[in-house]
Amino acid sequence: MRLINFYNNFISEIEKENRNIIYQYNAHGLVYLSIIEKGYKEKNGIKIYNAFKNEIFGLDYFLDRIVRFIYSAANGQDTFKRILILIGPPGSSKSSIVSILKVLLEEYTKNHEIYAPKDCPNRCNPLFLLPRNLKEELKYKYGVNYLESFYLPCPVCQKTLRENPWEEIELVPIQFSRLGNIGISTYAPGDPNSTDDSVLIGNFSIAKLSIYKNDSDPRVWNYTGALQSGNRGIVEFVEIMKSKTEHLNILLTASQDKMIVLKNFGAYNIDTFLISHTNIPEYQNFIQRSDTEAFRDRLFVIKIPYNLSYTSEIKIIKKLVKEINHMDPLVYKVSAYFSILTRIIKSYKKEDLEKIIQIFDEENENINNNSDSADIESIKKEYYEDFKVGMSGISPRTIANILSELSSFDEVSCIDVLKKIYDNFIKFNQNKNVEYNECYSMTEKFLENEITKTVIDALLGYDEIDKEIDLLFRKYYDHLGAYVNKTELKDPVTGKKIDIDETFLSSIDKHLKIVSDYEHRKNVYFRLLSLTSSLLLQNQTLSLKKHLPEFYNALKEYMFKEKIKLFAPSLNFDIPISDESKNIIRMIIDNMKKIGFSEKTAKVVLKYMNDNIIKFS
Predict the structure, then answer these.
(1) What is the mean pLDDT of residues 405-421?
(2) Which residues pair with 275 in a beta bridge?
(3) pTM reported for the whole predicted model
(4) Which domains does the chain have, with CATH numbers?
(5) Rounded CA gap, 304 and 66, in Å?
(6) Residue 495, exposed/middle/buried by CB under 10 A (0-12, 13-18, 19+)?
(7) 557 falls in which pLDDT band (50, 70, 90)?
(8) Are 340 and 348 in contact (CB under 8 A)?
(9) Going by DSSP bridges, is the β-strand pair 266-269/259-262 parallel, antiparallel, or unpaired?
(10) What is d(CA 142, CA 140) in angstroms, rounded to the nearest whole number?
């Protein structure tokens, strides 16, 4: 295709209101198209992009910020002249995000025709080869905002323009390649004493001089620097904060002026999306350097904290860990719970940490029905905007290492993981980190609750549990109403007067974590009365799981402790048991196997329950 045909087609597409053509000839725009091509959905004012699905979990807000930055740059805002830098703790997915963007860009250029001048070592943007007046027309008439009339193509294309009419310049389709360093490149600073500018802008080639015979011929230059290899696409800077000052000056010009300056060949413009990532200590050291003030002004910083969603953390750990041997289903839960606790305890030490976990859990829809929405938004805003929140704690890689090591030898139970957490973070760290001790204690309690729920489901049978809980709730509601209203309570079958079961009410109070006095019970009763009345007016049926999950769980725990008193001896593997008890254990284990336990891990969990939960109930 000749440049004149390209130009006419470019104008035609704009007039058809196809803005994609504008984005295709802008590095940020190409990346933006590669993302939105995969689709997205909106939730709570945030766009959730399919491009990151199954790869990045729990960071939708921050991914949306990245895409909004890319979109603004693609439309010629001043962010077009910034280096995007992702800052966060180790293992927070910074490099993974950049890798995904590279893959998306490479895939997009393989499926769509993107043109560059033939034989151009820089794959220059064809728009840069147009006459000045046409560039001005594109910018001011057609809204190609990122294009400046003074932009120059590379020295090779300038030579071609001097020798040929611009209309006749031949363009060819290009495809980006991560492995081939075509449109996608990576720069990592090396030894400052031995690394020269060639890693960024190439160098003079003696071998090419022997071919072209003239040191003023631009073709004698090796256009193999990171800024040239990544032209039209992404240039990733690894550990940019460790770059020497001379390289930072080159990057400063490349970002602000979109320009490279070559010795003997002058300056020319590039079209690149510059992105970097680093950790917090490196960034803090960098901004304190007196020689980086101008460069800091060219950075657009987006924090990438640790994920704080419990459900998402389970997905992250499952993605990182390849099971060599069986792992029971509570392994991932206890690992994720401890990880999240270590990340929130510093920032929310004065809050109810269990509530904080519920607030951040992306799949916990019940929290909004039972908490002050203003408090929830305030807590989430702090995570989104406060640079310190979510920036400390245990990395997913650390937990993945623990699980991978355990899985290499034998089947893994949640008890094995709890012991390993204790050994790694508590046993040899008693006085160094009081907060981790608290995290461990909470995780131990969490695991006991999860084991309790699992065993009660297996013991009672999944179909009968809800029916029994509904009956218990009816009893609780009736006895609570009689207590609050100071009325007589009658047996619904015989009609005889019965006493209010104070022991029962107190037990449920304990599981609900409320004080067993009149005022607290009165508040609970009128809340239940209001909810049931509202549902009745809406012709809806009360669902404890949906409308009152805390009551559902409290009644379930109560029911379990009552039942377990009858069956506890059956779970003690250290004493002889009857055939009936053996059948009970067999039923429990078989039901646990149905939800992912093995014979061995089910027995380990049951033994732990008998030794640590039942005995102290």
Answers:
(1) 92
(2) 84, 236
(3) 0.85
(4) 3-303 (3.40.50.300), 310-428 (no CATH), 461-571 (no CATH)
(5) 10
(6) exposed
(7) confident
(8) no
(9) antiparallel
(10) 6
